[in-house]
Specification:
The chain is an alpha+beta fold and about 170 residues long. It is about 30% helix and about 35% strand.
Amino acid sequence: MTLQDGVNGAESRSRRRRRWPWITGGIVVGLIVIGTVTGGGKKDGDAKNPTPSSAAGEPSKSADSSKSVSAAKPKAKPVAETVLSESGSGIKSTAKFKVDGDWDLRYSYDCSAFGMQGNFIVQEGGNPLGAIYLNELGKSGADVTHLHDGGTRFLEINSTCSWKISVIDVP
């Protein structure tokens, strides 16, 4: 072994020793990034409702007690709302109304003044080819039709009978 080989060997060993801090640092940074991205082992509930801690060094409340506090607050249930009520006889277009999604069309009709069976038709307003929601033939009737297409609408009613309708926005 020559002097040159000894010097080159020492240089290569020192280079290897200098690489390990970089490799270790890269691993640590990688673990930090992974921990940050995945939430560091916290559950979804922990991130949204962190357990409070006191600055005076008092122990923090347990997760079970914080859950019981939030469970004590009941959420208000949405209630159905009547957005349109109309009555009449013959042909009529209703006022516009807005429903968010599901809605009920409650109706009744009475043809006793007509003296025989009559027709009661309710269809989507403003569109001659629009949806026909009801088409009843009889002396009288009452029922509800459940619909599932929200938006701003109006109805066109065509009947030889007297009638009542109401539109209920169902939550």
